[in-house]
Design goal:
By secondary structure, this protein is α+β, with helices and mostly antiparallel strands. The protein contains 16 helices and 18 strands. The chain starts with a helix and ends in a 13-residue tail after the last helix.
Length: 457
């Protein structure tokens, strides 16, 4: 790989190519526990043309290319393969245009999600997708994984806001899909093929995003429950009442304790679960919906309902959910965050099953997640150096995914498949669907050079 690195230096300059061991370690893993491999070298392009040069070089010499942003992924999607070029797009971080007339923002893939949100906010607009890693994750990574977030129930996920993409294909050709038109049905919807493809079909270099008007008002509530089923029933009744909150999140007992020890936000340590509920929109509607949600929670057995009276209090209540992963990650040497998803009607069953499986295999699991859209995050608190415990964790995880599929759910709602979940994919989508995905991959990337081994072998 020294020869490869030397060739890349000729293209990009010595300051934007890494090949020495001490520099490669950082690029050997992402946010997924237990997964690591060593890159052959790292290229840091700043323009689409430089990406094309690197990809053409890789194609000529049959060198795998693994694309990476900030490395916050939770399925091993940006973990390198042996002898590959890691193509890190973090330096492609220009905001190309903010267009308030058309409610769009055009950015390069390396722009951090939080920056998009802040620019939209300054213009009186909103970029709704808000993955938990938004302060450090990049837009390109969000698109490649089709990231979700706390506002997914009302506003949808990343796919719903992508209007256009610039993509570099496996042979180095650059193509553009989409535009600022709200309506466009000319040909296949090609951009949708690349959204969520996890870097296996092409390298996303630029993204055109849709923005929406910023809601005029928002109310934040936190309801406490002594029974998990009561929280699940509250969610079902809120949706049945035709209320679509922008946020409807929950924490279980283990997560509550960890969050309170970490952030000291005033959560009740004797609670079985809490629900974070937020509604936004017209001030009168927000006030009415907040009152309705509070009444529904109390009717279903909530022991307390806090309604934020100030912006500061709202932030404090929302912190309880936003720091859940960080709080759990402090408890054990290894934290494995999963995202099994089921229809909302099956939430109570799924949560009970996770608790039963954790007891069965004697593993610690804290569960939190997006209860409003059925996306749960069972989080294993373990130690990857404990081989016997890791075997039990794997068995528990397998049972959880199998049960989610049995309930009509899926193995991942927002994290992607990557390396971590590809063994579970055939059962989740079936052989025919998997075969079609493989045929498409072979057509787009016949030499299997783009992120090989991810999603499927």
């Amino acid at each position: 790989m020294q020869n490869v690195a030397a060739d890349l230096v000729q293209m990009l300059g010595v300051e934007r190519v890494l090949w020495e061991q001490e520099h490669l370690v950082t690029y050997g893993f992402d946010g997924t526990a237990t997964l690591y491999d060593e890159a052959g070298c790292v290229a840091l392009p700043k323009t689409t043309e430089e990406v094309r040069q690197v990809v053409r070089y890789a194609a000529k010499h049959r060198i795998p290319v693994v694309t990476r942003g900030s490395g916050t992924g939770l399925s091993g999607g940006s973990v390198p393969v042996a002898g590959c070029i890691v193509l890190c797009l973090a330096q492609m971080d220009r905001v190309l245009e903010l267009d308030p007339k058309n409610l769009t923002i055009h950015v390069e893939s390396g722009v951090v999600t939080q920056k998009v949100a802040e620019l939209a906010d300054a213009a009186g607009l909103l970029y709704p997708p808000d993955p938990g890693s938004m302060r450090i994750s990049t837009i390109g990574g969000n698109v490649a994984e089709n990231s979700g977030g706390l506002r997914g129930l009302k506003y949808g996920v990343t796919r719903d806001y992508v209007m256009g993409l610039e993509v570099v294909l496996a042979d180095g050709e650059s193509v553009v899909f989409g535009n600022k038109c709200v309506k466009d049905v000319a040909g296949f919807s090609m951009k949708d093929i690349f959204i969520g493809s996890e870097g296996t079909l092409g390298i996303i270099t630029k993204v055109l995003l849709q923005l929406v008007p910023k809601p005029a008002a928002k109310k934040t509530l936190l309801a406490t429950f002594s029974e998990m089923d009561a929280a699940a029933e509250t969610v079902s009744e809120i949706i049945a009442a035709r209320i679509i909150p922008c946020t409807l999140e929950f924490l279980d007992k283990i997560t509550i304790r960890c969050v309170e020890e970490y952030a000291h936000v005033g959560l009740p340590l004797d609670a079985e679960s809490v629900l974070l509920m937020e509604t936004d929109g017209d001030p009168a509607v927000v006030q009415e919906e907040a009152q309705q949600m509070a009444e529904i929670a109390r009717r279903n057995g909530a022991t307390a309902v806090q309604v934020a009276q100030t912006q500061e209090e709202a932030v404090r209540l929302a912190t309880a959910r936003r720091v859940a992963f960080s709080a759990l990650a402090r408890v054990a040497p290894t934290t494995i965050l999963e995202d099994a998803t089921v229809p909302r009607s099956e939430l109570a069953k799924m949560i009970r099953f996770i608790q039963q499986v954790a007891a069965k295999y004697e593993v610690a699991v804290g569960t939190f997640g997006h209860m409003g859209d059925g996306n749960l995050h069972p989080t294993f608190l373990t130690d990857e150096k404990n081989a016997a415990e890791m075997v039990r964790v794997e068995k528990a995880m397998t049972e959880i995914f199998d049960y989610a599929v049995k309930l009509g759910g899926t193995i991942t709602g927002e994290h992607g498949v990557g390396l971590a979940k590809k063994a579970f994919l055939p059962k989740a989508i079936g052989d025919a669907s998997l075969g079609l995905m493989r045929r498409f991959k072979r057509t787009i990337d016949p030499d299997n050079l783009l992120n090989p081994g991810k999603i499927f072998d």
